[in-house]
Design goal:
The structure is a single chain. By secondary structure, the chain is of the alpha+beta class. The chain has one domain. The chain has 4 helices and 5 strands; from the N terminus they run H-E-E-H-E-H-H-E-E. Strands 3-5-4 form a 3-stranded antiparallel sheet. A hairpin with a 2-residue loop joins strand 1 and strand 2. It is globular and about 35 Å long.
Amino acid sequence: MPELDPAAVIEAVAGDPRLRAFTGHGRIETLPARQARRHLLLDKIAQAFDPGVRYSERQVSLFLGALHADYAALRRYLVDEEFLSRSDGQYWRSGGTVLPSPPDEPRAQALPAGP
């Protein structure tokens, strides 16, 4: 199972001029009050979760806790705004931006046209 990397999320959030003000000391210090900015922030966080992979509540909580002190609020926002879904203590990505695979990863090749 792929690791959830809080450093990559903090880097992405700090690199976005619309979200940079919410970071400090290597963490997300405050959550945006404006829904549009909060949505942008949640999308950046959701991108850390691989589509199709199920994560335990403990994994999600530890990851979110490394990002922000109120990990329960982040988890609730991610579910309420449909970035993550949950059932029976399992979480999985159900929304957000899906970035294209890096060019060094193998891609499916098209089959040659038939006769």
